[in-house]
Amino acid sequence: MATEEAHTTDGNEAAREGEGETDGSAGGADVSDPTLAHARELPPAFEPYAEESLPQVGVGSPGKVGELEATFAAGADGTTDLVADYARVPYHLSGTLGHDVDRPEFASAYVQSPTGGVAQGDRNRMVVTAEADARAHVSTGSATKVLSMDANYGRVDATFVVGDGAHLEYVPEQTILHPDARYCGETAVTLGRDASIVLADVVVPGRLARGEAFDFERYYARTTVDGPEGRILADTTHLAPGDETEDPRRAGVLGDYAVLGTCYVATTRDVDSGALSDRLAERVADGPARASASALPRDGGAFVRALGDRADDVREALAATWDEASRVLLDAPAPDPRKY
User: Fold this and answer.
1) Is 116 exposed, middle or buried (0-12, 13-18, 19+ CB in 10 A)?
2) Which of 261, 181, 245 is nearest to 215 (CA)?
3) Parent domain of 134
4) In this structure, how many other beta carbons lie within 10 angstroms of the beta carbon of residue 254?
5) Burial tier of 310 (Cβ tally within 10 Å: 0-12, 13-18, 19+)
6) Is 89 left (phi over 0), alpha (psi -120 to 50) or beta?
7) Which of 42, 290, 295, 314 could potentially form a cystine with 261 if both were Cys, beta carbons 3.0 to 4.6 Å apart?
8) Is residue 316 part of a domain?
């Protein structure tokens, strides 16, 4: 695994800082604001899609712009509460759960969706803030389905702001790419001092049991993590089965595997990133997925990349990564990720 500050998973450099026009949903917003990941540059490969009109309701219409804002804060007794939230379809938040037995100070929230998935023309964003010393775990109630498309594209952006001394986890269910899906997403993290975050992502290239593997058109996801001393991570995954330069089935990308998973453990705490990487690598070495770990720059943590034939195998590797990270950073195991 590469340990450069900017790491890219594709056949060419898909993350071009400062190139391309902004997405129409950006509105010329101030991109220095850490809560505006959705206002950043549109990848050049998606610019032709953005010009395509939709036969149904257009981009920006009611029901096509989802928003979720959630703020967690630590109380005087050290436990964390969800102190503010706002949701607009397709997001729904029912409140917090108290099932984290080994970490009772945590607030856990599951983001739900009443819709079938991400459709063409959707522009969704979430902003999750963990204020100073807060402890929060956010997940989704089910897999995110990126539906088939014949015009435009779907975009889902997420921003996480982690205050001084806080710890935030975002461990959603997998993303499933239906035939002809076009997905663009950006995740931006801002860490305070002595802060940490665990981010997990599993990408399934189709409904595998139906023989739809790699029938999607394009998948682009970019993750950045910034701390007080500068950028810790910039990682881009750009997959396009119809383009030989970005075909995920090439050697060095997915090869003969179908499912891709990544878990980032980024921190500004006083942690030996090399030792953390070794612990994560040892934890996932004997699992059903093929996985390994690398340390992040600026002694900013580590990440695990996993490949597998089944989503469950990759999810198992990332769950083990999450658990080991929790033990290192918080001296407590992660909760059982099962939701049924």
Assistant:
1) exposed
2) 181
3) 6-254
4) 20
5) middle
6) beta
7) 314
8) no
What's the token pair of residue 312?
A: 């469950």
What is the β-pairing status of strands 92-97 and 230-239?
Answer: unpaired
Total length of the chain? 340
pTM, 2 dp: 0.87
Q: What is the DSSP string of 240-293?
A: -TTSTTT-TTSTTTTTT--EEEEEEEEE-SS--HHHHHHHHHHHHTTSSSEEEE
Is 303 inside any structural domain? no
User: Is residue 276 a part of any domain in this protein?
Assistant: no
Tell me if 248 is assigned to some domain.
yes
pLDDT digits (tens, 9 = 90+) for 184-235: 999 999 999 999 999 999 999 998 878 888 999 999 999 999 999 999 999 9
Q: How many domains does the chain fold into?
A: 1
DSSP letter assigned to residue 20: S
**For the chain, percent helix, then strand, then coil, each to nearest 5?**
15, 40, 45
